[in-house]
């Protein structure tokens, strides 16, 4: 029986974002429960939702979750339907300990009853556990022999096996405890080497991206449901024209939000993988001194002789929690020296591929403004995003030079200018903070690719809005599918295999 016009209006007014795509040809479902809600296409090519039950592997898995080798404590994690058996048999307890409460117990071999160690036992019943399955942990002494004896004992039990790399996290994903963006954040957190990498990874692991992307996807599904309702019942049920207008107003808002999200200059990926900063400028401007000041060591040769640096000198640093690769380059000037010009060529190539470009100029020389403005190679290297740093503030009258610096910055079209002295340290902290003040959002190229695909589909949907509502609905479906691939709702098996291969065994 077809739904009446009032029922469709009630659903629309209620703002349900998870209605099936074509109703009432199949029953309305409300997959708001915390389980996998994946798109699928049925035999009659009508998109709909399926409720996927949490997947529980046939085997109970176990692994050492702490680093191998001698340590004060080693943690062995167990997950699966038979985890309870390991706790009872290996501790000789008659009943399981209270959930999430540590108990000091002797640990025995399940068959020979030999005492293996004495340690802490923790029990996490599913689904309130990391994996969503029954999970146990043995916190034992961290000697190699002790750890090996407990692992061997677990391996002797029926349907127990050592976990594959990342298998605990894979089961957490399968049981909807984590989505794909949270897993990627967890992987980044495990690999974080700097404070800013840690902060970014932790925000993602806690679900900041999941909330944003799921919110967009829910709005897209709402648009899809209403568009499908207009296609199926627009003539028969006299659905108001305002429904479609509201749909495409929402589509336009989504387009603007995704565009703003994409327009972040790849800051997230750069922070995750490391920021490449190139320092350039004319010979003897103090580029090598500036690099050494940031590195806090003699990483580059400093000399009063112009043209000392011929090749690119790279230094990896942790600047305020940001992973940075600083490149000191040859001085930019015209020269008859073939080797020096090769250095200039390499410097220009490095500038073009770096994430950030710092142009260093000596304060005494910028007062000959017209001469500097006519420097061809230097001008070619500078863009509006270049950070202009004026060095040797100790060698000139700073107040009389400010006007010249402002005029130079305006002529070159740069937005950021800093006055420093590598000799006295003046202005170094401010320049340093300027170079590390950006925040990050998108952390994976995969996210950017799928968001771009989503945006392209929304653009097409907007184009079809007044000409072909059926094609518009299909583009909305493609847009929602692209968002779903980011969080792991659809078509992510290859991504998962690659991601979990980077995890340690006990994660």
Automatic annotation (TrEMBL):
Domain GTP-binding protein TrmE N-terminal, residue spans: 60-177
Residue span, MnmE helical domain: 180-504
Keyword set includes Ligase: no
GO cellular component, as recorded: mitochondrion
Subcellular location: Mitochondrion
GO molecular function: GTP binding; GTPase activity
Principal subcellular localization: mitochondrion
Any one GO BP annotation for this protein: tRNA methylation
Xref: SUPFAM superfamilies: P-loop containing nucleoside triphosphate hydrolases (SSF52540), TrmE connector domain (SSF116878)
Alphabetic keyword roster: GTP-binding, Nucleotide-binding, tRNA processing
CDD domains cross-referenced by the UniProt entry: trmE (cd04164), TrmE_N (cd14858)
UniProt domain G: residue ranges: 277-392
Entry keyword annotation includes GTP-binding: yes
Family: Belongs to the TRAFAC class TrmE-Era-EngA-EngB-Septin-like GTPase superfamily. TrmE GTPase family.
Protein name as catalogued: tRNA modification GTPase TrmE
Species whose genome carries this gene: Umbelopsis vinacea
Taxonomic lineage of the native organism: Eukaryota, Fungi, Fungi incertae sedis, Mucoromycota, Mucoromycotina
